[in-house]
Amino acid sequence: MSISAPRGLASSGQKPITEILHPLSAAEEPLSPGPDVTVSGGRDKEVGLTNGTPVETPSPASASVLFNKLHLDDDLDPDTRDPYADTETHDLFVTVDDPKKHVSTMETYITYRVSTKTTRIEFDLPEYSVRRRYQDFDWLRTKLEDSQPTHLIPPLPEKFVMKGVVDRFSEEFVETRMKALDKFLKRVADHPVLSFNPHLNAFLSAKDLNKRQGLALLTKVGESVKSVAGGYKLRVRPPEFCALGEYLDTFNQKLGTIDRIAQRILKEQSEYLTELREYGTVYASWAGSEEELQRPLEGVAGCVTTCCGALEDMSENMSQDFLPVLREYILYIESMKNVLRKRDQSQAEYEGRLEAAVLRKQEDRTPIPAEVEKCQDKMECFNADLKADWERWQSNKRQDFKQLLTGMADKNVTYYEKCQAAWESLITVLQDKQTEDKTSETN
Amino acid sequence: MADSVSSEEVAVISNTDITSTESENNIINTMVERGTALLRKLEINVAEAEKRTGKNTVNMQETYTVYLIEIRPAETEGGTPAAPDTLWRRYSEFELLRTYLLVTYPYIIIPPLPEKRAEFVWHKLSADNLDPDFVERRRVGLENFLLRVASHPVLSNDKIFFLFLTEEKGWRDAVLETGFQDKADSRLKSLSAMFRVKNPDKRFTALKQYSDELNNVISQLLRIRARVADRLYGVYKVHGNYGRVFSEWSAIEKEMGDGLQSAGHHMDTYAASIDDILEEEEHFADQLKEYLFYTDAVRSVCRKHELIQYELEMAAQDLAQKKQQKEELATGTVRIFSLKGMTSKLFGQESPEQKESRLAALEQSIQEGEETVKEKNTECQEFVRAAWDDIERFKEQKDKDLREALISYAIMQISMCKKGIQVWSNAKECFSKM
Asked: Distance from B238 to chain A by nearest Cα, in Å?
């Protein structure tokens, strides 16, 4: 697998491990494996199982057949100007589905099946099927953030839900969450660097994730990253990153507005639906006191009921598919802003150290220490990663919103089509009766 | 049997999507049957409305609306339409005409006038009588009223009605000269009186019950429809916000910008479309209202019948009482208590001369009573016959009109759906080009 975007410095690019020391990886973590190297030690640290089971190894032939089929399905939009579209080989496919409730004495929780199909040699088997719960996804994300701080990590759906307000076990909630988790994992799997992260590998393949050790490491890692960069203030952010920041702020605002509008529409629609239902019942009760008009009135009542059903479908769709995706993007923007901030910090650190070193050099001719150069490397790698991820994110965003908004428009069209069909069939009935009357009159 | 009606007479919903057969069937107000002599002669329009100011009966300035009635001779073959005769009438004159008709034809279900004040409004419509939309709808309603009367087999022949259409100045005097005012009082009495009929006519009882049910259900329907309209307005208008935010968002996007901007315009169109949609729907509400008010007229006929029935029963009862009295007087037995009987018992029998004269008086009274009963009976039978004629006519009219109204309502809904599909398909295309 190769990436066409040029890198100034070798770090997260696809080079053999032996050549690079990842500048910001925590000391004890194994390095991001390149495509050609088999990871040996990394995964063994994770021991202990949660209730996942790997799938029986099928023959390699069938796996690649599946892989080819999936690959074709991915070629959706030839218009996509995804910079990686031509060069990426899709060789890692993940799916999240099949939610199940687990009840134990201590707690009740939901697990999801995470299925993986891959031809990558970093994985022992071509297929995996494990069960994971939200906590596990959260663990993965945190590990990814800490081990790849220069990269944009996709967001997870909201962690906390107010008990009593939202039913954590309702079909709708679980369904919505599952779709978001699926999206998260797919985005990670599609990422040229993140998808090779050993934590992802473990997440997808290990029978049980022992996260306790990971969590301990987590806090140390988190702190070390912070302590390194802390204490330096950024003076000037380069213009391209300024533009990025501004864009993120405005976009965030607009998405927030769209969210509010969508919610308001749902509310108005729900109130409209309530009134419409009552409206239909009045026609039905009127029909009871009429003779000639009974069928027409019942027909109208039926039409109104059909329209109510169609409206209900559309509203449900909006709240289950449209809004969650919108909110996810708002979270995504937050993640991006965080990465931007970290980038700023690394620049600040570099500039700070450089200044100090230059002063010292002036005083007593000590050469610029290697540390400063390391900082420079860090910063430049950060910038490059961020730019690359930004391009990717923009392109994905375009696709996602195109799909989202087209979907919304489509649902509205379907709603009106259903209503129109109902009323048209009613007219046929009513007018048939009229022609019947007319012919009987003339006879 | 209904001929095609010229568009001047009835309001037709402008619906370009329906076929011509549908359009012909889809006459909203009434399938005015040109069966009456009057309509064979004349075409009637309420063409315009105008505001006037003037001094009223207590010499104060007031603003009111007048309506222009146009009368044209019905089109003759090969003839060019002549210039219409016109006169102006205000709403109170229509009311006067209707009261006259109510009193003069108590066995007829008199067509109702459009409402005096706007009721069952949803928030956007103003309840102001001078609001142009309200005035316009009233104009249509008044024309409808005139056509209903003109197409009625009995009412169309009324002289006062004819004068209403033709005599601007002298009409008011002509109406008052008929002396209908006296009858008006008794009619009012009949409507409000509390009396019980011993042998109610089952058909009328059933009709009154149906009329009450219809009144209830249409009121309910109109109320809820107003609420539905209000909510639907909200749904559409909120979408307008999408227009603004898409426009703002498009400013920060490169490739997505054009698509978003255009889609935003479609959202604005969508939001704006609800105004016309709901305006059109008011027409349906007006049709329902006409029949709501018709139920009052039906009820009035039933009550009038009750009164006549009651008067008949009272007259019969009175006659029976007198006959009883005569018998007692003749035979000397007192079965029924009477003051006269008591006093004669106490103070002694009356003289044979007195008895003779009393018998004669009673005899006279009985004869008169029998006349009265016969009259009342005939009146009652006539009333019932004439009323049921009109009731049957009304029922057919109601069924036809309401079916038409429902069809046109369905057509309106279809039109609304088509507009919705159009707008959202356009938006979808813009989105897919993002």
From this structure: 6
Dump pLDDT digits (tens) for B396-410: 999 999 999 999 999
User: Which pair of tokens denotes residue A66?
Assistant: 């599946």
Cβ separation B245–A276 shorter than 8 A: no
What is the distance between the alpha carbons of residues A417 and A181, in angstroms, rounded to a whole number?
A: 33
Strand partners for B71 = B44, B85
Contacts of A268 in chain B (CB under 8 A): 231, 234-235, 238
Our CA dihedral for B298, B174, B190, B112, rounded to 10 degrees, sits at 20
Q: Is A292 in the B-facing interface, judged by CB distances under 8 Å?
A: yes
Which residues, including other chains, have CB under 8 Å from residue B348's CB and lie 6 or more apart?
none
H or E segment to which residue B121 belongs: none
Distance, CA of B178 to CA of B180 (rounded, Å):
5
pLDDT digit string (tens) for A175-200?
Answer: 889 999 999 999 999 898 899 899 99
Give B-chain residues touching A312 at CB under 8 angstroms.
none
Mutate to test the interface with B, among A405, A425, A428 (most CBs of B within 10 A): A405
pLDDT of residue B333: 66
**H-type helices in B76-201, by residue range?**
91-104, 132-150, 159-166, 171-177, 180-192
What would the two tokens of residue A132 be? Answer: 């994971």
Residues of B in contact with A292 (CB under 8 A): 399, 403
Query: Residue B47, Cα to own-chain centre: how many angstroms?
Result: 20
Burial class of residue B301 (count of CB atoms within 10 Å of its CB; 0-12, 13-18, 19+): buried
Per-state percent for chain B, helix, strand, coil, to nearest 5: 65, 10, 25
What is the pLDDT averaged over residues A107-123? Answer: 88
Q: How many CB atoms lie within 10 A of CB A213?
A: 12
**N-terminal to C-terminal alpha carbon distance within chain A:** 83
Q: Shortest CA distance to A411 belongs to which of A314, A267, A322? A: A314
Q: What is the mean pLDDT of residues B239-264?
A: 92
To 10 degrees, the CA torsion angle through B243, B246, B252, B258?
Answer: -90
| Cross-strand pairs, B85 | B71
> Which of these, B222, B345, B226, B231, lies nearest to B287 by C-alpha position?
B222
Run of H or E including B54: strand B42-55
Distance from CA of B121 to the nearest CA of A (A): 15
A373's tokens: 């150069």
Write the secondary structure of A306-333 as one string of H (helix), E (strand) and C (coil). HHHHHHHHHHHHHHHHHHHHHHHHHHHH
Which candidate, B83, B99, B102, places its Cα nearest to that of B91? B99
Q: Give the chain A residue nearest B421 (alpha carbons).
A: A413
What residues 124-183 of chain A have any CB closer than 8 A to a CB of chain B?
none
Q: Is A321 exposed, middle or buried (0-12, 13-18, 19+ CB in 10 A)?
A: middle
Chain A from 243 to 282: CB within 8 A of any B CB: 247, 250-251, 254, 257-258, 261, 264-265, 268-269, 271-272, 275-276, 278-279, 282
Full DSSP string of B232-261: HHHHHHHHHHHHHHHHHHHTT-SSSHHHHH
pLDDT over threshold 50, residue A8: no
First-to-last CA distance in chain B?
57
In eight-state DSSP terms, residue A93 is E
Cα distances (angstroms) measured from residue A225 to each of A218, A222, A388: 11, 5, 22
Q: What is the mean pLDDT of chain B?
A: 83
Residues 6+ apart with CB under 8 A from A197: A32, A143, A144, A147, A148, A188
SS3 B411: helix
Q: Which residues of B touch A258 (CB under 8 A)?
A: 242, 245, 249
